[in-house]
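Sequence in, structure out.
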Amino acid sequence: MGLGIAVLDSQPGYDATGLTVGLLLLGAMAVAAASGRRPWLWAVQVGVWVPLFEIGGPTGAASLAALVVTIIGAAIGYVIARVVA
């Protein structure tokens, strides 16, 4: 999921940051809620791809914000899993 989002985000002419952020947030939330364990692992697995693809590009270190977004999403998903259980 994260790899697909990173490939989409790294395409020339793609400038839909809001869509990328939303997909990362929802993706991390979904997998963390489905698992119900280790939200940090899901945050890294979903969010690491965007910085790997873009850290050397013009956005540089700003792409690390993807990890922050996925940490928030995974935390929300983990809480949802705990409330439902």
